[in-house]
Each structure stands twice: as C-alpha cells, then as structure tokens.
Amino acid sequence: MTNSETRPLLQWSAAMAMSGTIGAVVLESGAAAPAVAFARCFVGGTLLVLWCLARGWLPAWRPSRRDLGLAVLGGLFLVGNWVLLFASYALSSISVSTVVYHTQPLILVGLAAAFLGEKVAKSHLVRAAIAFGGVALISLSAHGEDGKPVQLAGIGLALGAAVLYAGASFVAKQLKHIRPHLLAAVQTTVGALVLAPLLLVTPLPSTTSGLLWLVLLGTVHTALLYVLMYASIGKLPTTTVALLSYFYPVVAVLVDIAFYGHRPTWPEVLGMLAVLAAALSPQRGGQSRDAQVSRGTDPCGTRTPGRRS
Predict the structure, then answer these.
(1) Which of helix, strand or coil describes residue 107?
(2) Per-residue pLDDT of the chain (309 residues; tens, 9 = 90+)
(3) Nearest-CA neighbor of 51 among 289, 176, 252, 219?
(4) What is the spatial distance between Cα 171 and Cα 189, in angstroms, rounded to a whole number?
(5) pTM for the full model?
(6) Hey, which residues does 149 pair with through a beta bridge?
(7) 33 alpha-carbon distance from chain centroid
(8) Which residues contact 91 (CB under 8 A, 6 or more apart)?
(9) Cα–Cα distance between 164 and 295 in angstroms, integer?
(10) Which residues pair with 143 in a beta bridge?
C-alpha cells in the first residue's frame, strides 16, 4: 500500500474511532444535552469558520437565497439531531443509543423515495426490516449501568435523532455543489445561534473539568473530525469506507463496557449485530460516492462528500 493510500485510510479510521468516544465525552461533561450541543456548535463552528477563512473558501462564497435557506434548515436538523442523541445517552446507554442511531441511513433512503421519487430496492426493504427488528430486540433486552432495563424514552430519542440526521443529510444532498467544510461551518454557526438562548435554562457546566470536556468535544470531536473525514473519504473506495465505519459503533460499545459498566445481554448483542449488518453492509453492485451519504458514514450529521479539487 502506497503512502497516498495509507494516509486517507488512517485519517478515516481515526475519525471513526474518535466518533465512538463522543458519548463518553458528553457524559463526562455533566452538562445537559442542549448545552453540550451549543458548545459543540460554538467551539467546533468557530474553528471551522477560521479554517474556511484561512483556505479562502468563505470570502469567495456567494450563496443564493435557496442555498442559504437550505443550509439553515440543514443546520436546524443537525443541532436537533445532536440534542436528541446526547439526551438519549443518559436514558439508555452509550452503546444502545449509538447502535439505534445507526438506523439513519435506512431512514434517509426512505426520505429520498418519498420526496425525490427514488426507487427503493427490495434488498433495502429487507435490510430495513432486519434493522428495526434489531431495534425491537434491543428495546426488549438491553440493560443500563444499574442492571435495569433501558428506558424506552432513550431509544425513542436515539431514533428521533436518526430521523433528524437523515433529514440533515437529505437537505445536504441538495447542496452537493457547496464545499462540505463550508456547509459544516455555516450549519454549526446556525446551531450556536439557535441554542444560545437555551443556556438560560440549561447552562454550561460551572466546573473547569466540565468546560474542558466540552472544549475537547468542539475541537477534537467536531472540527478535527470534519477535517479528517473530508480529507480522506473522497480518496477511499466505498467498500473501505463502509467497512471502517464499523469502528464508530464498535468503539462506542467497547467504551460503554470498559468505563460505564454496560453488560450487554445476548439478545441485545444479536439486536446490535442485526442493526449494524443491515445499516452498514455494502450494497450489491457497488454504489457511487454520492450514495455514501445513505450509508451513515458521517457521524456529524451532514453529507459525506465525494472527491473535490
């Protein structure tokens, strides 16, 4: 393997592994979900704006009203997705929420069929049935840190986050002509503005450690994560992207077991495997780079880009 192939492989692998630790950072911050989402948008968005300024992308951008409106709408879906997902961690567990969240690529295909008239293959319907059967199995058998069954509200929030993620990705498919770094910067800025008033109700942590966890989330798990993903995905085969995307939920499950005492039951394990196999398995006949967005390879909630010059 040449250096030109190794570098994007390592970048994408690192991004997916980092994604698997997001839940732990959220819980360690001790902050409420809206405050965590605001910090992620504010810190990560500021760094992404500076990155776009440094590369000269932002000053040269002249969006149409349609593009700007869609970008704002996608930003609302994006932050809503984060708030629901972060809230779900405390009501279920990191591993359960993360795996249930990975139903979103299947939901996105359904949205594309409903609103864009795209055909849904029979194989997709089978995969969707398997995935949501897995969610049902997890709901009936999963247990939290205290050994009690996970709260269905937590699973419901994770599914709601998956729907909003799919909505953000659906909107972003209409903005393929916009550089993804720039779109991410705009959407996180929108998120910070929308979530700022909620700090009156759910304030930021009062402890230094809590604030540092949120800074880590914004710098490493948002800004750096975006840069790593967008620097690598256009240079990797779709099958490689799909395979390495398993790092995200696998790392999340391992972190939950190692640091939060989660002990998955066998039915829960089978449910998780069903969801991940259905949502992330490569489709027959291959697929284009643009179709990668329906595979859920971007944990940040925006589209996964193809190669850009």
Answers:
(1) helix
(2) 556 678 999 999 999 999 999 999 999 999 999 999 999 999 999 999 999 999 999 988 999 999 999 999 999 999 999 999 999 999 999 999 999 999 988 888 888 888 878 888 888 889 999 999 999 999 888 876 666 778 899 999 999 999 999 999 889 889 989 999 999 999 999 999 999 999 999 999 999 999 999 999 999 999 999 999 988 878 888 778 888 888 999 999 999 999 998 888 899 999 999 999 988 776 544 444 344 443 444 545 444 444 343
(3) 219
(4) 17
(5) 0.88
(6) 143
(7) 15
(8) 150, 151, 153, 154, 157
(9) 15
(10) 149
Structure tokens at 236: 């990797």
CA distance 146 to 142: 11
Place of tokens 């994770």: 158
Cα 103 versus chain centre, distance: 11
Residue 160 φ then ψ, to 5°: -60, -40
Cβ neighbors of 68 (< 8 A, separation 6 or more) are: none
Rounded to whole angstroms, the maximal C-alpha distance in the chain is 55
Q: Output 203-211 pairs: Cβ under 8 A, ≥24 positions apart.
A: 203/35, 204/31, 204/35, 204/38, 204/39, 205/29, 205/30, 205/31, 205/35, 207/30, 209/28, 210/29, 210/30, 210/31
The DSSP call for residue 149 is B
Cα–Cα distance, 230 to 228 (Å, whole number)? 6
Q: Which residue has the tokens 């969801």?
A: 275
How many residues appear in the chain?
309
